[in-house]
Every structure is written in structure tokens, then in C-alpha cells.
Amino acid sequence: MENKEAYWQENLRLIFICLAIWFVVSFGLGLLLVEPLNEFRLGGYKLGFWFAQQGSIYSFLGLIFWYGAKMNKLDKKYHAEG
Amino acid sequence: MDELKLYTYIAVFGTFALYFAIAWWARAGSTSDFYVAGGGVTPLQNGMAIGADWMSAASFISMAGLIAFLGYGGSVFLMGWTGGYVLLAMLLAPYMRKHGKFTVPEFIFDRYYSKTARIVAVACLIIASLTYIIGQMKGVGVAFSRFLEVDYGLGLGIGMAVVWVYAVMGGMKGITYTQIAQYVVMIFAYTIPAVFISLQLTGNPIPQLGLGSTLADGSGVYLLDKLDMVVTDLGFKEYTTSNLGGTLNMFAYTISLMIGTAGLPHVIMRFFTVPSVQAARSSAGYALVCIALLYTVAPAVGAMARLNLMNTIEPTAGEHLVYDERPQWFKDWEKTGLLKFEDKNGDGKIQYTADKATNEMVKVDRDIMVLANPAIANLPNWVIALVAAGGLAAALSTAAGLLLAISSSISHDLMKGVLTPDLSEKNELFAGRVVMTIAILVSGYLGLHPPGFAAGTVALAFGLAASSIFPALMMGIFSKKISGTAAIAGMCSGIGVTMLYVFQHKGIMFIPGTSFLGDMGPNWFFGISPNAFGAVGAIVNFAVAFAVLKVTGPAPAHIQEMVENMRIPGAVSAAHDH
């Protein structure tokens, strides 16, 4: 494995992006912005309420699998998969 | 014997027989089998096992009930207990798997090159796990006494015996495969009643969609709007907007639960059982899939149970249920004392309102919502029997995982690691089994005679994990420089601040009357409730650790090199001993 530092930097960048989204969907849309979002609707759900009780969980799932897939590619690129 | 009891016996003892069969098939032969299931568990299997390990009696029985009465405020549990897996998948699991050891304190020992750090970690782990396990044992006792009408103590004894057989015999290997079976039992037991109820109320069989649909009564009103209307008419807070102690408190609460989840040793341990770093990342994803199946259904269960309860007591506005005509489930739960009616105005009818002076439902225990839900909705008896088996599966699977975390931290970290380093593998395996047996007896005893602090224990477990273990692990991976001294100072101050805050508001060891500051909003630090304080404890931990690092200097070069190796997947051996 060559260039450990570059691999780690790319990983950190990915983690940063993922955690930013993680923060926005739960603390942002489900908590801090819940009142303005509740003006909108998704079927019978108020939108902010939906993010807090449904949407954030679906987003977490998407994030973990997306991160896993990107990291597998990164492992190949740097020949780090062992 | 009536039909319901017969079905319940079949469901409960049928599933027990299944767990025994699996334990016999997967019994452990080596320490590697006993601690990490030989390192050969696939990500999907591991995901299901984590699901069962993680989802306890609290998730299965209590959470939907909490949501039913807290409404939007209950979201902290939904986001908090799932969002932690994102942190696990990105910040801890892959690197700890790469390092490849058996236990969390062992990782701390290697990274912080300090026996003191290892002992501090063992202490945090045992306090957190033992407090958690009391709740599971109580859940087992309650499930037996309610559904099979056996004595609470006898029910507890049967539960202890079942866990003993498969956890002591099979170790991590036996536990993993029984947990997979328990996950399946649990998820069917949770979703089948939810599907029935969603179908009844909205015509949509998928509870997640049913919750956002219109009612099936032809009125065209959305279920959540109807629920908001019903509860506000009676003076309760609006369901979809009712807050839990303000935005800052909800924020801190959610953070505490998230990092507490990521720091619980019995969950982290499960990531040591998979064969590679890539598998550790994907099993966090599979774990969250398995957990989300229950967690996205729970809000529907909560809201629908609340609506059904309200509709039973007050079928149309102003028309109240006559007490003498109350349904059978009402009488059953009255017997347990968890549901209480008091005819304050003497009209023989049930008035259920938010006003304490006129409310006649003087006690509606939140914990009965999931268990009573199928009966409230008039579902067939086999569904009720299945819920009993599911509740037991949830409690037993979590208890087994916690027992393993406790016994491995004693036999592997304290005995092999610190006290008697020349312990042979065979003797260590034997010691692990003896310690686990003792742990079962201790937790059974505590379940039978719950100490005064039992009610606050789960919150304490999360607070401890959030303020001590998670920051130590995360800093150990993401900062090469952080030293043993810094980490120990961080862990001690984080856990210290959290315990102090909890004790000053809830009483020392939760003994009533010993709290030196009252347990009420105005006395709380920025309005943060004691349950949510783990977030502040974690911040203190990070701050103290970096301050001490500045003063005492960085970790030695060979440790920094070890951290560099942890960060790249490379070739991974099965989790091994040093």
C-alpha cells in the first residue's frame, strides 16, 4: 500500500460529507427547522414530523451504504483491500 | 386452559426449544469461538445479530408506548437510537475491526498503552452493562407473569436458565446464531400486529404508509390529523408538534443517545466477529436495516395505539365508555395495576382528559401499549401469543450480549490481561464460563430485588457510554497524538461530570431524598434533563483530554505508527490474542 496519507485524507473528506448530511436530516430538518417544515406535507405527515420519525432513519441507511460503497472503491484505488 | 394461554405456551416454549437446538449446534470450542465466534460471521448474519443484541425489552415493549404519549417528542428515541449506527460505521467499527482484538478494554489498553486505562474501561463497561441487564431481567419476569400467569420470580428463573444454557455453552458463537433466530421471532412479533392494525384503521397494510394515510372510515380525514384533533379536544398537547422539554433538551438528548449507542461495548464487540474491514462497514448497514424495520414501524404502532385507546374510551366526542361495559383487556390490565380507573364524578362512565382534577384514568402505564395493542384492536389470540414470544426474544437476546460483554471484560481483560497473564486458553475459556454464570446469578438477583436506582438505569448506561467510552475510542483513532494520560483524564472527568449531574437531580445512586438539587426544569443546566446530559459529559471528556495533551505531550512514536496501521484496511487476520 502506497500513500497512506492521501487515502486517509480522502476517507476523512467522505466522512465529513456523510456526517454533514447526517446532521442536516436529523438535527436540521427533524429538530431545528421542524416548525417551518411542518407547513408542508407528505400525505398525512407534516414534513418536519416525517423527517423526525421516518425520513432521518431512511437517510441514515442510505448514508451507511453509500459510504461503504465509496470506501470499497477507495480501497481498490489505493490497493488497500488486502 | 383457555385458547390464548395454550397458544402462548406453544409460542414461548417452541421458541425456547429452537434456541436450545441452535446453541447445541453452535457450541464453542476455543476462546476465539467464545469471544468473537471464530471471526467467521457474514455481514448479513451479523446485522441480524446486532439487531437482536441492540433491540432490548426497552425497544420492543417501551419505545412505542413512549412515542404514543410523547408524540413528536418521542422522536429523540427514534433518531438517537438509529443515528448512532452512522457514527459506528464511519468512526469506530472498521478501525477497531482492523486492529483485531477481542474486547473494547483490550483495544483501549493497546491504544493507550496503560493498564489503568484498561481497568477504567472495564469499570465503565461493567457499570453500563450491569445496569442495562437489570431492565432485561425485569422484562422477562413481567412477560412471564402477565402472559403465562406464573409467579414473577419463577418466570425470572426460567429466563435465567434459558440464557445460561445457550450463552455459557455457546459463547459468542452460540449467542450469534440464537440472536439471529431471536431477531426473526422479534420482528414478526412486532410487525404482524402493526400490519393488522394499520389495515383496520387506514386500509393500508404497510404501517409506515398507513400512518400518513387517511382513515378507512370514509371520512377522508388523515389519521394524524384525527389524532391531533382527538387529543387536543381533551386538553392534551397536539400529537405531531408536542415538544420534549424544549429544542435544546431534545438536541442534547438525541446526541446523547446517538453517541451512547456508538459507545456501548456489547454492540461494538459484535463488529469483531466479521472477517474483514469491508464486512465491518457493511454489517453496520445491515444492522441498521434490521433495526429500521422495527424503528420505522414503532411510530405507527404508537400513534395507532393512542388513537385506538382514545376511541375505545370515548367512541365519539362527548359519548364516554360505561365502566361496567369495559372490554376484557381493560380488566386484565387493571389486575396488574398498570391501568387504573377512579370514578371521580360518580357517573359510572370513563372520562379521560389532560386535567388532573377531572381525569378518571388515573394510571395508564406507557409500557402496556405494545403488549395490550393487539387486544385493544381485537386481533386473534395467536397474534397476542406471538407478541409474548417476541418480548421475551428481545429481552433474552440483549441480556445474552450484555453477559458476554461483562464476562469477557473480567476473564479476558482483568484476569488474563492484568492479574494472571499466564492463564492458558483452556482455563481462560473455563473462567469465562464461570464468570458468566456468576453474572447471570447477580443480574437475576438484581432483577428480583431491583435496587432503588433501577428505574433510571438505562439512561445512566447511555450517559456513561456516551461520556466515557465513545470519546476515548474516537480520539484514539482520529488523533494519532492523544496519549494515555490524556485519555484517562478525559474518561474520568466525562463520566464524573455526568454521574454528578444525574445524582444531584435524581439522588445519589437514585436513592430518593439524597438529591441535593431538585429534579425539575428550572434547576437544570440550560434546561437539559439528566437523561440528556451524556452529550455535555462527552464534550467535557474531549476538552479535558486535549487540554491534558497540550500539557503532557503526545503519545510515543510506536503508538502513532499503530494508529496509522489501524486506519488502512490491509490484510486482516481473524480477531486474535496477543
Topology of helices and strands:
The complex is a heterodimer of chains A (82) and B (578).
Chain A: H1 4-32, H2 34-37, E1 41-42, E2 45-46, H3 47-77
Antiparallel strand pairs in A: 1-2
Chain B: H1 3-25, H2 31-36, H3 43-54, H4 57-70, H5 75-99, H6 104-112, H7 115-147, H8 152-202, H9 207-210, H10 223-233, H11 246-263, H12 265-268, H13 277-295, H14 298-313, H15 328-336, E1 339-340, E2 363-364, H16 368-376, H17 381-419, H18 425-448, H19 457-478, H20 484-506, H21 534-552, H22 557-567
Antiparallel strand pairs in B: 1-2
Helix pairs in contact in B: 1-8, 1-17, 3-8, 3-13, 4-14, 4-16, 4-17, 5-11, 5-13, 5-19, 6-7, 7-8, 7-17, 7-18, 7-19, 7-20, 8-17, 8-18, 10-14, 11-19, 11-21, 14-16, 15-16, 16-17, 17-18, 19-20, 19-21, 20-21
State the gist of this model:
By secondary structure, chain A is mostly helical. Chain A has helices at 4-32, 34-37, 47-77; strands spanning 41-42, 45-46. Chain A: This is Putative solute symporter protein.
